[in-house]
Design goal:
By secondary structure, this protein is an alpha/beta fold. It has helices spanning 13-30, 44-48, 73-92, 105-108, 110-121, 123-131, 135-138, 143-159, 162-172, 180-195, and strands spanning 3-7, 37-41, 55-58, 63-67. It has a four-stranded mixed beta sheet, covered by helices on one side. Helix 1 runs parallel beside helix 3, helix 1 (13-30) runs parallel beside helix 10 (180-195) and helix 3 packs across helix 5 (110-121). The chain is globular.
């Protein structure tokens, strides 16, 4: 079973929800057969570097680490897609017998360069994921709304006991209308059935 870990100091329920859905979608499209651990990392120093790290794949532990500071959520997913392709390559055995990789491996090693090109092409899987979501569902939440929800959850976590916070959130949801999460799950479930 795939694992998503939030190793930041922020609550990000909406991002974690979409990351989880995207990993399942990518697993289906990339056909990797081993579970992957996805860790979201906060590193403020790295976030300030113009060409800092965006993500990396630990092939020995089947783990993807994605840096989230100062990034648009879609850019985070794009990096995740790239690293998940490295995971799929690892599951296929493409990293067998290559040993330690130094800086510049994508320029000096033809096999590794081919694998990097394939990983960059994996951005199309994010596009497919995005296109699989109905347009009206996709546009229901703006970036500002997403940020506001994240801030709301952070404030609730800090100042309101967890049970009381959950009760407040539940009271905001009407009983007759499905939540955005429920709509998304229904759409993704239908799309996954059609892709099989």
């Amino acid at each position: 079973m795939n694992t998503i870990i939030n190793n930041t100091e922020r609550e990000m329920p909406n991002l974690l929800f979409v990351v989880d859905k995207f990993v399942k979608f990518a697993q289906n499209r990339m056909s990797f057969d081993k579970p992957v651990e996805v860790e979201l990392i906060s590193d403020s120093e790295n976030g300030q570097i113009l060409l800092g790290k965006t993500a990396y794949y630990d092939r020995n532990n089947f783990k993807v680490c994605v840096f989230v500071d100062n990034r648009h959520p879609k850019d985070i997913l794009r990096s995740l897609s790239h690293e998940l392709m490295h995971h799929a390559q690892n599951c296929r055995g493409d990293f067998n017998n290559i040993g330690h990789l130094d800086d510049g491996y994508a320029q000096d090693n033809e096999h590794m360069r081919d694998l990097e090109i394939e990983a960059y092409e994996a951005a199309i899987i994010l596009r497919d994921f995005e296109d699989s979501i109905e347009k009206e569902e996709k546009n229901q939440i703006t970036l500002d709304e997403w940020k506001n929800r994240e801030i709301f959850h952070c404030l609730m976590e800090r100042f309101v006991p967890r049970k009381a916070a959950l009760a407040l959130v539940e009271n905001r949801i009407t009983k007759n209308q499905p939540t955005l999460r429920e709509k998304f799950n229904n759409i993704m479930s239908d799309r996954m059935k059609n892709n099989r």
